Amino acid sequence: MMPGKRVLPAFILVVGLAACSESKPPTPPTEQQIHSSDSAVATGEMGRHPYRCSDGEPLFVDFKDNGLQIDLRPSNSGLPMTLTAPAQGLQYVGETATATFKGSQLTVVEGDGRTRTCEREGTR
């Protein structure tokens, strides 16, 4: 029997099995992925999104560096607190705070132990 005749049935079997395998649905994008592709928002600032925190205060989040860096601002013109994440979907860490996204919710834990839960305002 020639080698090609043995390889062809095996190749057909592999291709057939691959065609029958179940493909996984894509995972929904993280907040970082959603905002890292922003080119403009209503405020005119690239990547800036308004949040409202559990204490009633606003929080403006600027997404930078393909979503791996955020600047948290108490007002549109306030001084930023910069936090970074090592990869998409991971916690942001700064000198005096950490931040974690879950859906449209942002939880900020500051160095003094103060925890604020903030919800994104408006729709994209």
From TrEMBL:
Superkingdom to which the source organism belongs: Bacteria
Region (Disordered): 22-48
Organism name: Sphingobium yanoikuyae
Regions of compositional bias (Polar residues) in chain numbering: 30-40
Protein name per the record: MliC family protein
